[in-house]
Amino acid sequence: MVQLRSILTLADNSGAKRLKTIHVTGGWKRTYAYVGDVVTAVVDQADPHGVVKDSEIVKAVIVRTRKERRRKDGSYIRFDDNAAVIIDPKTGDPRGSRIFGPIAREVKDRGFNKIASLATEVL
Questions:
Q1: pLDDT by residue (tens digit) across 40-55?
Q2: Is-contact 64 11, C-beta < 8 A?
Q3: Are strands 83-87 and 7-10 parallel, antiparallel or unpaired?
Q4: Which of 19, 89, 16 is nearest to 49 (CA)?
Q5: What angle do CA 116, 102, 80 make, to 5 degrees?
Q6: For residue 114, is it within any domain?
Q7: Is the pTM of the predicted complex or chain greater than 0.85?
Q8: Number of domains comprising the chain
Q9: What pLDDT was estimated at residue 48?
Q10: I want to staple 15 with a disulfide (CB 3.0 to 4.6 A). Which of 47, 62, 74, 87 is the partner?
């Protein structure tokens, strides 16, 4: 569960180290984002030689959340951190070329097949 001003770690190699959520996309007065949702975030820390720079406003897909999420089969999925992948807003493809750590199956179900194929593990 990610909301306004939530700090996200990065699960890709786009050059950012930390993101801060500034808007949850998808409706009027929507407050929370879960796995597979798109958020608008600002780059809080970045590598000096990365693709993205400090204070850049980006779109990101949530790939891991600490808050557990119930699936249709009755099981729950939970991760150790809140993580996101920076995407291109027009195509939905990741701006980095690698994805680190596991991602949830809900990301692929939401149509981000490129992120799922780059990930090491899909849970």
A1: 999 999 999 999 999 9
A2: yes
A3: parallel
A4: 16
A5: 140
A6: yes
A7: yes
A8: 1
A9: 93
A10: 47
